[in-house]
Fold:
Amino acid sequence: MNRFFKISLIATFLTGFAILLNSCKKEFDSPPGPKDQNIVANTTIADLKALHPGNGAYTMVNSDIIISGVVVANDKSGNLYKQLYIEDSTGGLQILLDAASLYGSYPIGRRIYIKCNGLCLSDYNRLMALGVKANVAGLPSQEGIPSALISQYVIGGSLGNAVTPHVVTLNDLTTNMQDRYLGSLIQLEGFYFPNLNQTYSDTSAYKSTQNRDIKNCDGQTTIIRTSAYANFAGQRVAQGRGTVTAIYTVFGNTKQLLIRDTGDVNFNEPYDCPLPPGVLFQEDFEGQVTPGPLVLNNWFVGAEAGSKTWEARLFSSNKYAQMSAFSTNDASAKAWMVTKAINLGAFANKTLTFETNAGFHNGAVLKLLISTDYSGTGNPWAGGVNWTDISSQATFSPGLPSGYPSSFTPSGNVSLNSYSGTVYIAFKYEGADPSGSSSDKTTTWQVDKIKVTGL
Ligand SMILES: [Ca+2]
Ligand SMILES: [Ca+2]
Structure:
């Protein structure tokens, strides 16, 4: 072994030892990644936001304000573009940065410091952001901090800081521009998508941003707003009920939630809301998108004859199911709307109620049917499925030959005491629109507030 080789062997050994020591030290002494810089925030996010009066003004920061916050949302999924949301213990704020793939430098959980002197606060329909003031086509505009200047204003700190959403109710969120939760990561519990048959955003070439209603079992509704450029835009919305984590934003007086990706939608509980005591089934159609097809889990809606069937409609802030053969030119119109399975249990007194309204009444019939042997799927008119006509037990709208009665007609109590176990209730429309009008039976029948109780 020559001298040179011996030295290099020792050097290799020492280097290896040093690396070993170094990695041990890292493991025990400091978390991975960069440390917080030698910089101290002197202003809270809430105090910075309080400088901005609103109304789309451009509020220049002219003093050495430094804020610090942890990244709670970035552009990783594409739902946000050229922006971050950061939070400290007082509030959240949208930060505009004129650069793409920000998530590489600013992952969720990274602390950042922002030297605000020279930056500009403004709001877009009351959602506040921090950026720069620019002139676009001769008009003032708030824009992202130019990418070449980002390092002058934004200082990256430690990674892996805890990001915990604020668990709130919809009533906790106001559209006041200084609302503590605006721009912050919040979590709402007990929500679901009333229309399950949709994607998170636009999948067409137009790529328009889309609002999707979510609803809770108290009947409150809010919006999840998603860019068509989000990588989950084409995914079908979550099919259950549960918690949603999101950045709380506003557009004027409208509350809007921005999810970071579909991992923020934990709708893992059963879809249907728990029913009040004594209620075995109820449907008021308020979750429907109108006008449009009825979208109801495990119901059957379809035409036995003719081209039309029951659909969702809205009038005077009330949604309901509607069927009319008017203007179909169908010689026969038979349309079924069958509920999902209703378990009558062992109650002694079981009662069905509903409401109807009949417009332009010229003889089309609405029948109320019940079955104990329908399977819950497939054509309810198929051979072997038995339906009992219990229409005579209910009161139906008297209808008007022209226009509509001023209100729905309650059915009265329809006793289901002779039934037990699982039943299906069907509303069957029977009409016709043959050539000419003398034999038309094209009444518009509307059904709402179907309810079965057991006591
Ligand atoms: Ca209704
Ligand atoms: Ca006709």
